[in-house]
Amino acid sequence: MSDPYDPAHEGAQMSFDGRMSYGDYLHLPGLLDAQHPLSEAHDEMLFIIQHQTSELWMRLAIHELTAARDTLRGSDRRPALKMLARVSRIFEQLNNAWDVLRTMTPSDYTTFREALGQSSGFQSHQYRQIEFMLGNRNTALLKPHAHRPDITALLRAELAQPSLYDVALAALNQCFPLPGSVLNRPPDQPHVENARVTEAWSTVYRDPSTHWELYELAEKLVDLEDYFRRWRFNHVTTVERVIGFKRGTGGTGGISYLKRMLEVELFPELWHLRTGL
């Protein structure tokens, strides 16, 4: 059996016969062969890669949100704060991706738009899963995934458990008892803003040193929603810049639909308490 490779003494590895290479570890042949434009348009490659990389970042966001939620249910919640901070940075990357897509003009997009058929980012099941995880729970939005029983089952499983904010409210309840209507709501129903919740979070913000862990958790949630809102806003401005007010390829109202989404608040009490401090 040969001695293990020692980079300190042998330098850069040049032979990969029987050894794992960079491309092997990342499965690059399959990854780089996943772009298949359906037209001759130059900008279709940009469109495909922007959306594929966004789905990869969303996959990581789901990984981190799942771990954060599980950690918040335990006795030591501190590691969850790092995970939530990472999700905010992931959405910063997703925001930056719009800057690249905005280099595509309306004229560029029309050269391949017909090739998209009825496909639309509205149909992204990972985006739907993230929204469900964060608490924006609308069972009507399962319909675009009805043709995929596996994806529908995944989303229904998410709706059957508490959202990230529900878990945060359970932690808040340990210090400030909250109403049963907040704590015992059916998990597939969205959280409704509650004055008692606002009062409890306000108490945390008025005395951070006494409630530091809850204070940090609250600010990590606000930071996450801040970046998530920016992602939605950049989506709106990018779509308006490229297609104006035409309907989306998937049949949604396009800009009108996206602008309605800007009004959705994931953690309402954490935003509204600031007025009263």
Helicity range of the residues?
55-70%
Mean of pLDDT? 90
Distance between the termini: 68 Å
Q: What would you report as the Rg, rounded to the nearest angstrom? A: 22 Å
Polypeptide structure, described:
The protein is mainly alpha-helical and 277 residues long. It has a single domain (43-276), classed as Methane Monooxygenase Hydroxylase, Chain G, domain 1 (Up-down Bundle), CATH 1.20.58. Helices cover 60% and strands 0% of the residues. It is built from 14 helices and no strands. Helix 5 (78-101) runs parallel beside helix 12 (212-243), helix 11 packs across helix 14 (268-276) and helix 12 (212-243) packs antiparallel against helix 13.
How does the SSE layout of this entry go?
Blueprint: H1 7-10, H2 22-26, H3 28-32, H4 44-72, H5 78-101, H6 106-110, H7 125-134, H8 149-159, H9 164-173, H10 180-183, H11 195-206, H12 212-243, H13 255-261, H14 268-276
Helix pairs in contact: 4-5, 4-7, 4-9, 5-12, 7-8, 9-12, 11-14, 12-13
Question: Can you give keywords for this protein?
Answer:
60% helix; mainly alpha; 277 residues; 14 helices
Write a short abstract of this structure:
This protein has 277 residues and is an all-alpha fold. It is built from 14 helices and no strands.
